[in-house]
TrEMBL record, chain A:
Keywords: Activator, Metal-binding, Nucleus, Repeat, Transcription, Transcription regulation, Zinc, Zinc-finger
Lineage: Eukaryota, Metazoa, Chordata, Craniata, Vertebrata
GO cellular component, one term: nucleus
Annotated stretches, region: Disordered: 323-399
BP GO terms, sorted: transcription preinitiation complex assembly
Family affiliation: Belongs to the TFIIB family.
Chief location of this protein within or outside the cell: nucleus
Locations listed in the record: Nucleus
The name this protein goes by in its record: Transcription factor IIIB 50 kDa subunit
Biased composition (Basic and acidic residues): 341-357
From TrEMBL, chain B:
GO molecular function: DNA binding
Keyword Transmembrane applies: no
Location of this chain's protein in the cell: Nucleus
Organism annotation: Chordeiles acutipennis (Lesser nighthawk)
GO biological process, any: DNA-templated transcription initiation
Name of protein: TBP protein
Biased composition (Low complexity): 57-101, 109-119
Region annotation Disordered: where it falls in the sequence: 1-20, 53-121
Lineage top rank: taxon: Eukaryota
Keyword Transcription recorded: yes
Length: 415, 302
């Protein structure tokens, strides 16, 4: 509104623009009457021109980074508390996190990755102190995708040049079994299913060691093996009552996830145990199958060194025998075994008889997936010099003719 | 290094003046008369070969020398590749693509195979599986035109900002960018990669662009082989912790980062090994010869 020319109070024409603190005012110099005031606050529409570009000053940027660091550190500390780690771990993890955030390759990654970075630092710390923490646990705590976690972890390991020792299976067994809920009598677990913790831990450890000696562990995810071994040891401690329980039911009762590979690991473990059982004198009389062998796991584990030696060919002997039988008929070689070791095992077809010793090899070598191998480079390939003349006709086959271009254009609607 | 200690004192004085050489200096066996036309023999440690085998090796080396007389080049760089050249003579003719090393200062026509440590050669040659190379076509390209007028091209600008072109012989794939730079992948040898890149450049030329062939460079080579015995990866990561990364939760193989040469090896329990990160073929062979004795150490199980 237009400013009045005279003061309504005293009629004087001496009007001043003055500021009362932050507020502009039109004041009469004679009587001090306030004629008009400026606005103290602005509305959302008034601030329209301020909203489009947000210019962050240097100080504000440093503030953001500092806040990011602080939230990250707090997240690392929370993780350590949730996992009930000792205080030393927390300090180490926080120091790794600070180092990582200052490293140029992690400075500007997305927020999602920075969250995972905290988890990775905790994971690395635990591994370095031989605390058995699996990636699965951290991923589930952070609600993170395994592949993203894997990439952040690998780049962290490379950039900070951390040496991370391998996961110790013995500790993993103990930690994993701690989370099983079979060691106390509760309402939903039948009485014969409850088991003593120490006995189960010892036996599971022995079965896991057996698996590791027979190549079932190398290259495989550790948790399904521990689950399968725990199941077998639990069954074998009271076979009469527990043989009818399946692996899935066992995991449900124990309150533990059933990882999908556990079924395969169980099958492989049972196969190894069956072979060992075939070498035990007082068991040869019985016809062993997957169910009955569980009853004798205790005996098998007790004599496992002897049984392993007898049940499986060692590579040395195999090579000598294979060399001696150099003219061995190729027809008897089983389809499953590509290795020379298999040639002299008396086997016909893919299924071997259970009493013939089989070489102690990883399962991927025993059952190789039939894949078409690309042929070795032929002589003509190796004669390529790279500077041969290129014929026009060969190139023209890759170019479209004019009619073809027309039809293609019409079809695609491009110009 | 080790090799120097095994040299008789007079042989050390024969070190070639070329500064790039390390222990791979020309060494003459004490049995060989100086300056004869026969290929000089590398010094062998005592426990390895019988005289019969040595003579056999001599013959093979002579054959190798005759075959490779045409390829005389001084390799200033890889001092370790000589190991492979020597090891190959025990089994077959030398590999295509390896050039012999330092010309002998005494007998200029024959290549020298310097001494190798006492370990036996592996006899296994990694096969090259993939070569990635780049070349600059030297002119700006209109990707839409290329995609329209070439049969073997696909272009989806929303997904990726380059034309993906494929040819049948050699079977390769190329990524062609609008700046004129091109990446060629899928070839099985360096020469094939170069030939394929030239073919792509010729296709682009025929489409009407003034394409040239500048700065062809091999960026990466991938090889693979099989040592034919299972490997205890857990043991390997314990003893070579500073080079290895073995996370069975993430990946079934062990990632071994070799420092010299700078190659990454993926080692699997089945005994298959994948080698990658090489710029020249010799690096792959050298890396495999370095890892083979280490892997053999993890062969025996119980």
């Amino acid at each position: 509104m237009a400013a009045p020319a005279v003061c309504p109070g005293c009629g004087s024409a001496a009007l001043l623009e003055d500021a009362h603190y932050a507020q502009q005012q039109l004041v009469c110099a004679a009587c001090g009457c306030v004629l008009a005031e400026g606005l103290l606050t602005s509305t959302y529409t008034d601030r329209q021109h301020l909203r489009d570009i947000r210019i962050i000053s240097e100080a504000a940027w440093a503030d953001l980074e500092g806040r990011c660091l602080l939230t990250g550190i707090r997240r690392v500390q929370d993780l350590c508390k949730v996992l009930q780690l000792p205080a030393v771990f927390e300090e180490t993890a926080v120091s790794y996190f600070q180092r990582a955030l200052q490293h140029p390759s992690f400075h500007l990654v997305s927020l999602e990755k920075k969250e995972l970075l905290g988890g990775c630092c905790v994971f690395v710390t635990c591994r370095q102190h031989n605390w058995p923490l699996t990636m699965g646990t951290i991923c589930s705590l952070l609600y993170a995708k395994q592949e993203l976690f894997a990439s952040v972890y690998l780049s962290l390991q490379k950039e900070l040049e951390l040496s991370v020792p391998a996961l110790s299976l013995a500790d993993l067994v103990k930690t994993h079994l701690n989370s099983f809920q079979l060691f106390q009598h509760t309402a939903d677990i039948p009485a014969p299913f409850v088991e003593d913790k120490e006995k189960m831990i010892t036996r599971t450890m022995q079965i896991v060691e057996l698996a590791s000696e027979t190549w079932l562990v190398t290259g495989r995810h550790p948790v399904p093996i521990v689950t399968a071994a725990a199941f077998l040891s639990w069954q074998s401690l009271q076979p009469a009552a527990r043989l009818t329980c399946t692996l899935a039911r066992f995991c449900k009762l124990a309150g533990v996830d059933l990882p999908p590979p556990a079924h395969l690991r169980l099958k492989e473990l049972l196969e190894i145990l069956l072979r060992m059982a075939s070498q035990l004198a007082w068991l040869r009389v019985f016809k062993m199958d997957k169910k009955t062998v569980v009853k004798h796991i205790g005996d098998l584990l007790q004599h496992r060194i002897f049984l392993l030696k007898n049940a499986f060919c060692l590579e040395d002997e195999e090579e000598q025998r294979a060399a001696a039988l150099a003219e061995g008929s190729p027809g008897s070689a089983p389809a499953a075994g590509g290795a020379a070791q298999e040639k002299d095992c008396p086997s016909k077809g893919k299924r071997q008889r259970e009493d013939s010793p089989r070489p102690l090899l990883p399962p991927c070598l025993i059952n190789p997936r039939k894949r078409l191998r690309t042929a070795a480079p032929s002589a003509s390939d190796s004669a390529v010099t790279g500077d041969e003349p290129i014929s026009d006709s060969e190139i023209e086959q890759y170019l479209r003719g004019p009619e073809e271009i027309q039809t293609f254009r019409k079809a695609k609607g491009w110009l | 290094m080790d090799q120097n200690n095994s040299l008789p004192p007079y042989a050390q004085g024969l070190a070639s003046p070329q500064g790039a050489m390390t222990p791979g200096i020309p060494i003459f066996s004490p049995m060989m008369p100086y300056g004869t036309g026969l290929t000089p023999q590398p010094v062998q440690s005592t426990n390895s070969l019988s005289i019969l085998e040595e003579q056999q090796r001599q013959q093979q080396q002579q054959q190798a020398a005759q075959q490779s007389t045409s390829q005389q080049a001084t390799q200033g760089t890889s001092s370790q590749a000589p190991q492979l050249f020597h090891s190959q003579t025990l089994t077959t003719a030398p590999l295509p693509g390896t050039t012999p090393l330092y010309p002998s200062p005494m007998t200029p026509m024959t290549p020298i195979t310097p001494a190798t440590p006492a370990s036996e050669s592996s006899g296994i040659v990694p096969q090259l599986q993939n070569i990635v190379s780049t070349v600059n076509l030297g002119c700006k390209l209109d990707l839409k035109t290329i995609a329209l007028r070439a049969r073997n091209a696909e272009y989806n600008p929303k997904r990726f900002a380059a034309v993906i072109m494929r040819i049948r012989e050699p079977r390769t794939t190329a990524l062609i960018f609008s700046s004129g730079k091109m990446v060629c992948t899928g070839a099985k040898s360096e020469e094939q990669s170069r030939l394929a890149a030239r073919k792509y450049a010729r296709v682009v030329q025929k489409l009407g662009f003034p394409a040239k062939f500048l700065d062809f460079k091999i960026q990466n080579m991938v090889g693979s082989c099989d040592v034919k015995f299972p490997i205890r990866l857990e043991g390997l990561v314990l003893t070579h912790q500073q080079f290895s990364s073995y996370e069975p939760e993430l990946f079934p193989g062990l990632i071994y980062r070799m420092i010299k040469p700078r190659i990454v090896l993926l080692i699997f329990v089945s005994g298959k090994v994948v080698l990658t990160g090489a710029k020249v073929r010799a690096e792959i062979y050298e890396a495999f010869e370095n890892i083979y004795p280490i892997l053999k150490g993890f062969r025996k199980t119980t």
